[in-house]
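Please decode residue identities from the backbone states below.
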């Protein structure tokens, strides 16, 4: 597997950026998350006053559990979804258009063929991930291909000049792989990530069922902090082999590559969140290059955010995935850039700073 040199955020650039933010003509610290986002981007880009960021969106398509008992649609829902992108008719593309963000759609594992879709990059490794109740989700060779393809896409988008990429996915039956990946990395129980259903098996019965499929693969890790760097990487790779799926593997490679290029990613749902967890576990510094977006009323997503220590800002009760939440998250980042660059400091505006209060001693007065 390719290795990466991922650097910490640039502390000097962040310090300089924070000083400007504190001196903008507003009560100090009053713009909360917009301020911290701008400060972090100064560290990501090693630029004390970033501006006019170049945004992009990456949608990765894979069907899951294609040989499992719940596969009744055989990828037709996914095909309809990716056709909307091919025709430029998705909500995600509408949101991206406002930010002049190109949308890249790559099919690495849909069950249905997409070679006839001219605006979809068809790079199918296999037509869907396996149900791990029958065999591991993807083979070791397929895992390597998916990771390498993700690395390559990070290089490609870096070469186009993109600085921030919103992540999304298309695919059927993503739930189980996202759940197992999340539980294994965070240490959460399956029971805590399952929601009650009005009929059918109880949470305890469903959790026991999942354990019966997963436990024979020996993917559990008692304490990730006790593992060395290579052991941690190998454990994550084994997890992705067993229960990751092609899209999670692809996005894991992409996120690692992006961070090595001092670019940032925005994630939203449980599938993209699972890839973030995998990448951060392999390379902890990746966390500094990851931004959250939408809030989902989903135990898996809540656990991912808890583990990462992030609080998504967008409470829109979205029911659609396909990168819409992540793309809307780009708008929050864009707003933070406008704050940083369009507002004037007290000195620039020739306005007298407050002589007392929270900003005293931090805000520069006019000379």
């Amino acid at each position: 597997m390719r290795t990466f040199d991922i650097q910490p955020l640039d502390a000097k650039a962040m310090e300089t950026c924070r000083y400007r933010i504190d001196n903008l003509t507003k009560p100090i610290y009053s713009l909360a998350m917009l301020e911290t986002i701008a400060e972090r981007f100064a560290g990501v880009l090693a630029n004390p006053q970033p501006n006019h960021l170049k945004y992009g969106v990456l949608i990765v398509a894979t069907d899951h559990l294609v040989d499992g008992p719940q596969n009744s649609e055989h990828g037709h829902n996914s095909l309809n979804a990716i056709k909307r992108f091919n025709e430029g008719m998705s909500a995600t593309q509408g949101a991206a258009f406002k930010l002049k963000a190109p949308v890249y759609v790559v099919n690495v594992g849909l069950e249905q063929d997409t070679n006839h879709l001219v605006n979809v990059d068809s790079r199918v490794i296999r037509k869907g991930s396996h149900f791990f109740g029958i065999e591991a989700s993807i083979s070791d060779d397929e895992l390597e291909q998916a990771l390498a393809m993700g690395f390559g896409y990070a290089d490609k988008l870096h070469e186009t000049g993109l600085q921030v990429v919103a992540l999304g996915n298309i695919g059927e039956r993503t739930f189980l792989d996202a759940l197992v990946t999340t539980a294994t990395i965070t240490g959460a129980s399956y029971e805590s990530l399952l929601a009650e259903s009005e009929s059918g098996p109880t949470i305890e019965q469903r959790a026991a069922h999942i354990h019966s499929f997963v436990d024979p693969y020996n993917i559990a890790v008692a304490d990730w902090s006790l593992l060395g760097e290579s052991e941690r990487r190998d454990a994550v790779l084994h997890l992705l082999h067993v229960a990751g799926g092609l899209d999670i593997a692809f996005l894991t490679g992409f996120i690692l590559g992006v961070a090595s290029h001092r670019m940032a990613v925005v994630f939203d749902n449980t599938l993209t969140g699972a890839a973030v967890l995998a990448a951060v576990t392999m390379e902890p510094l990746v966390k500094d290059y990851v931004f959250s977006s939408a809030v989902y009323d989903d135990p898996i997503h809540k656990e991912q955010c808890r583990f990462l220590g992030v609080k998504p800002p967008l409470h829109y009760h979205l029911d659609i995935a396909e990168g819409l939440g992540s793309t809307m998250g780009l708008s929050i980042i864009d707003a933070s850039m406008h704050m940083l660059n369009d507002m004037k400091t007290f000195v620039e505006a020739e306005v007298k700073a407050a002589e007392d209060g929270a900003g005293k001693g931090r805000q520069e007065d006019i000379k």
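Observation: The mean pLDDT is 94.
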